[in-house]
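Lecture notes, continued. The same structure-token format from the folding unit now serves as the input rather than the output. Read the line below as a description of shape only.
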């Protein structure tokens, strides 16, 4: 199967799950996760209409993006962001950073964006699976985190992100996504100024249909579009 056929299959599945969830599939954004894949594949993906590109390593962005021939519409940074990499990342002007779980990282981002006269859109990553190895703040820290984050000037919080438990147990996956949805609904009722719970970034190749059913409107899909990743030594 070629890339264009795989895109079609994913779009079809997004459509079906959106219908099940009672939402318009146009409102579910597809982030094409091109990490570990060569720049030629990014160009092909963009050609085929995958206009939101997701990468998870700053080093890889630095290597690949200058060689891109085609223009993407949006670049999303989805990986864990070390604070010493913030300035390097910001040079590429990510449309959205999905993976914020530290106030100090937000402050660094804000320093860059205020110097350059814009506000950076970010999502807060929440660890809904409870696995220690996973990034993200714990669900009960969210209000404490928001209070601090909302004082930082040149960032805009646009929603939440999570990675579901990697398991075949559908109930457990559903629990993670439904928890993120609940947290976001609760935050909405508090009517914070300067905070828009617009995006729920949840769902990857193996669980995006469940995620959409549970309220996701941003899915991050890599391997089912581009095939298995071939990790180099860096990982
Ligand atoms: C790699 C990655 C994805 C995509 O994973 P697939 O299972 O290949 O679809 C999504 N989100 C994050 C944060 C990732 O690092």
């Amino acid at each position: 199967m070629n890339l264009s056929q795989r895109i079609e299959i994913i779009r079809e599945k997004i459509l079906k799950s959106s219908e099940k969830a009672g939402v318009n599939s146009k409102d579910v954004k597809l982030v094409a996760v091109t990490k570990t894949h060569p720049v030629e594949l990014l160009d092909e993906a963009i050609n085929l209409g995958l206009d939101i590109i997701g990468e998870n390593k700053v080093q890889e962005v630095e290597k690949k993006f200058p060689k891109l021939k085609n223009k993407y519409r949006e670049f999303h940074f989805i990986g864990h962001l070390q604070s010493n990499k913030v300035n390097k990342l910001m040079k590429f002007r990510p449309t959205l950073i999905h993976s914020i779980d530290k106030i100090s990282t937000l402050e660094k981002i804000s320093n860059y964006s205020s110097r350059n006269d814009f506000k950076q859109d970010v999502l807060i990553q929440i660890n809904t699976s409870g696995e220690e190895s996973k990034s993200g703040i714990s669900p009960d820290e969210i209000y404490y985190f928001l209070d601090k984050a909302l004082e930082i000037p040149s960032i805009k919080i646009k929603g939440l992100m999570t990675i579901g438990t990697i398991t075949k147990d559908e109930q457990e996956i559903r629990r993670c996504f439904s928890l993120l949805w609940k947290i976001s609904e609760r935050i909405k009722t508090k009517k914070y100024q300067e905070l828009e719970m617009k995006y729920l970034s949840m769902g990857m190749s193996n669980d995006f249909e469940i995620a959409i059913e549970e309220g996701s409107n941003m899915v991050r899909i890599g391997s089912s579009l581009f095939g298995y990743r071939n990790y180099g030594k860096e990982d």
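Point for the exam: The chain has a mean pLDDT of 96.
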